[in-house]
Design a protein that fits this description.
By secondary structure, this protein is an alpha/beta fold. The protein folds into three domains: about 1-125, Rossmann fold, CATH 3.40.50; about 140-205, no CATH class; about 205-360, Rossmann fold (3-Layer(aba) Sandwich), CATH 3.40.50. Helix content is about 55%, strand content about 10%. The protein has helices at about 10-20, 35-45, 50-65, 80-95, 110-120, 130-155, 165-180, 180-200, 215-220, 230-235, 245-255, 260-270, 280-290, 310-315, 335-360, and strands at about 1-5, 25, 70-75, 100-105, 210-215, 235-240, 300-305, 325-330. The strands form two sheets. Strands 2-1-3-4 form a four-stranded parallel β-sheet, sandwiched between helices. Strands 6-5-7-8 form a four-stranded parallel β-sheet, sandwiched between helices. The model has no long low-confidence stretch (mean pLDDT about 90).
């Protein structure tokens, strides 16, 4: 058995650590690029969203590398995600690849236990102690990446030398990937956090704060959104992304005996405008605007073109009483970098004008 999976940000790193510790043959397709997108567009049904197309391209590339077992997120909610795996498996078979897709149930009622049982099957029935140990190490890498990325988001708009935070983040990701024990992982995290803190300039600079919300995949996969976070950093904006995989893991896989979690708070905030789940991340998109409006100067809403839950959220957002500008960016293969940059620059200019107006009053 040789396992492959599609990219979504740096998610392959904790999975790679997990599989290496269980001696499972794991191949990583190339980082998302134009060929990945071209493959996905060519073989996907017309009208499918960019998460389907890019993951389709990744699955083909993994199959080209000999993967016969492919991991793919799946769900049972009101979203086309539940159809992805079966449709993509049919496409792969039509292309001549004898590959099986194993679904990662992101909305499974069994939560963590279901995921661990799936890992046990893939590991040829490895002992539970070994599986749990490997899972914990993968989770530690995931947490380290997200901690560093949060600091990178704060450092980009106030760094002394432009590009330093992005360079350090790329180095940190590589070092985390190479770390093979907890001690090394802790040192890597500490060292790069120190370097990032030293890279920021002193003073009372107060950059604009822009939240980024929207559909899960286009939030977390930079290729799908044309590196919108880096581009905002170049414009002197501090990004507050509403979704990190480590947080999603905590709230979605683990039971919550302490009561309301962040996701529940977001849903409650959205209730005056949206009473129920509409599939995907649409409910969360509305709730994020309501819940965090006072913290942000503006909000960028990322949505795959044709994504119905985000179309619903996009149309609700202008009707909320929270006075915060929202820029919706629809992501697909037609999205061009020059056009997106023009819209970002205009949006940032608007936010600067609003902040100055508030100071005068």
């Amino acid at each position: 058995m040789r396992i492959g999976m599609p990219h979504m940000g740096n998610l392959y790193i904790p999975f790679k650590a997990l599989f290496q510790r269980l001696n499972i043959d794991f191949v990583i397709p190339p980082v998302n690029n134009q060929r990945t997108l071209s493959l996905g567009v060519r073989y996907s049904p017309e009208g499918m969203c960019i998460p389907f197309k890019l993951t389709m391209g990744n699955l083909i590339e993994a199959a080209e590398l000999g993967a016969d077992t492919l991991l793919m997120p799946a769900g049972s909610g009101i979203c086309r995600l539940g159809y992805y795996a079966k449709t993509q498996e049919h496409i792969l078979h039509d292309l001549g690849y004898d590959a099986e897709i194993v679904c990662l149930g992101v909305s499974s009622q069994r939560k963590l236990f279901g995921l661990l049982e799936m890992i046990k099957r893939l590991s040829n029935n490895a002992p539970w102690a070994k599986i749990i140990s490997a899972f914990r190490f993968g989770l530690a890498k995931l947490n380290a990446m997200d901690r560093i990325e949060r600091v990178v988001q704060k450092a980009r708009p106030v760094e002394q030398v432009k590009g330093t935070a992005n360079r350090l983040f790329a180095q940190a990701i590589k070092a985390i990937d190479q770390a093979d024990d907890y001690g090394t992982l802790k040192r890597v995290q500490r060292d790069y956090l120190d370097q990032l803190n030293q890279a920021t300039r002193n003073g009372n600079t107060q950059p604009l704060i822009v939240g980024i919300t929207g559909e899960f995949y286009v939030l977390l996969e930079p290729f799908s959104n044309l590196d919108v976070e880096k581009e905002l950093g170049k414009l002197g904006v501090e990004v507050r992304r509403t979704t990190f995989i480590s947080e999603w893991t905590k709230f979605s896989l683990f039971l919550n005996p302490l009561g309301m979690n962040e996701k529940d708070r977001i849903h409650k905030a959205a209730l005056p405008y949206l009473k129920r789940d509409i599939g995907g991340d649409g409910w969360e998109s509305v709730g994020e605007k309501v819940l965090h409006a006072k913290e942000y100067d503006g909000l960028i809403h990322l949505a795959p073109f044709t994504c119905m839950p985000e179309i619903v959220a996009q149309n609700i957002m202008p009707s909320t009483k929270e006075n915060i500008p929202v820029l919706t960016i629809l992501c697909d293969e037609q999205l061009g970098k020059p056009g997106m940059l023009t819209r970002l620059e205009a949006f940032v200019d608007l936010l600067k004008h609003r902040r100055r107006a508030k100071v005068k009053t």
